[in-house]
Amino acid sequence: MIRKATIQDLDLIVPLFDDYRVFYNKESDIVGANDFIQQRLEHQESTIFLAFNEENQAVGFIQLYPLFSSTNMQRLWLLNDLYIEADARRKGFAKALLNQAKQFSYETGARGFFLETGADNEEGNALYPAVGMTLNDDHNFYYWNT
């Protein structure tokens, strides 16, 4: 089952979000994760969907941030976070969350959503085309850090 998270789901999201950060080689920080997710939800700065297994345990999440395309004059979503617990992987939860993100894009009148992943992310680079996403290699990706 997939459902949109609310602030009441904070206790379900935070451990998953912390595990997600650890997966990307960040130090575990439950307090920081709690504060970060709480702020996003309270200020409606992101939308989170949770995936639940048959035992009704939260096993994964997807987090989308709102953006806009000036040239298309439409909303876009940045799919910044997608995480499934290790023992729940390869059971369809990631596909279900991605399909929910598609549905959410339709419902919000968005042009779509996009994400960035490493060229070495073999699982993701196999998964995204399998759910109808297209690799865009026509553009350069630049960034600036403080």
Please provide a written account of the structure.
With about 150 residues, the protein is α+β, with helices and mostly antiparallel strands. It has a single domain, classed as Aminopeptidase (3-Layer(aba) Sandwich). Helices cover about 35% and strands about 25% of the residues. The protein contains 4 helices and 5 strands; from the N terminus they run E-H-H-E-E-E-H-E-H. It has a 5-stranded mixed sheet, sandwiched between helices. A hairpin with a 4-residue loop joins strand 3 and strand 4. Helix 1 crosses helix 2. The radius of gyration is 15 Å and the shape is globular. The model has no long low-confidence stretch (mean pLDDT about 95).
Largest sheet: 5 strands, mixed
The top-level CATH class is: Alpha Beta
Give the helix proportion (percent range).
25-40%
The count of β-strands is 5
The outline comes out as globular
Number of individual domains: 1
Strand % is 15-25%
Q: Which architecture name does CATH use?
A: 3-Layer(aba) Sandwich
Task: State the fourth-level CATH superfamily.
Answer: Gcn5-related N-acetyltransferase (GNAT)
